[in-house]
Design brief:
single chain; ten-stranded mixed beta sheet; 6 helices; 206 residues
């Protein structure tokens, strides 16, 4: 998903501000007025524009009130690792507790953002899918360039494993083992709680 500035618009009736394109949105709902929750939504693939707007919204809400929680609702197939870690770093930097909520799906880099929420305040809906797998990059060039890029990917993958281990019940070695298997590993909502990606399941399964 690529979000463009000219697509930014304000939905005054619903209190939602969002930037969007055909395949996803990132936005702020309710802005915390009148005791309402402050909500940032991440819908679709994580890319440069989604990252930029998400960081912008988090910083604006933090400046408005540095102590009240921000809810981050995530429905994402993942996307660019670098852009996801930019959002991750801001989540760790701001003083506001960020409550993460997975709905629909949280895959690849999006699982890191879900796990990085405030401990005790990370949740998932009962029919949400979560998936972790190794980083994937496509590149071309000389053999030397490709070897250097592979080393960089391995370095980033090691960093991802350490970050996931920091926020879950998995060790870095266990995460690396999933990466090295080169398979998509899907987790049920119950398994996300057991493995420490979330703290509880929202709502009740019918």
């Amino acid at each position: 998903m690529i979000l463009t500035k000219d697509k930014k618009h304000l939905l005054k009736n619903s209190g939602e501000e969002s930037s969007k394109q055909d395949d996803g949105t990132v936005g702020v709902i309710n802005l915390g007025g009148d005791g309402l929750p402050r909500i940032v939504t991440l819908w679709g693939k994580i890319g440069p524009e989604m990252s930029r707007h998400t960081i912008q919204y988090i910083l604006e809400l933090t400046a408005e009130d540095p102590t009240s929680p921000i809810e981050m609702w995530i429905n994402s197939t993942g996307g660019d690792y670098v852009e996801a870690t930019a959002i991750y770093d801001i989540m760790q930097y701001v003083p506001c507790p960020i409550h993460t909520i997975a709905i629909g799906e949280a895959m690849s880099a999006a699982t890191l953002l879900l796990a990085a929420g405030e401990p005790g305040c990370r949740s998932i809906f009962p029919h949400t899918r979560l998936m972790i797998h190794q980083l994937s990059y496509s590149y071309s060039g000389t053999l030397t360039d490709m070897n250097n890029m592979q080393k960089e990917v391995n370095t980033m993958q090691g960093m991802m494993a350490k970050m996931m281990a920091k926020h879950t019940k998995m060790t870095a070695k266990q995460v690396q083992k999933v990466f090295e298997a080169n398979l998509d590993e899907y987790l049920s909502p119950k398994q996300t709680v057991e493995k420490g990606f979330t703290d509880f399941i929202r709502g009740k399964e019918k």
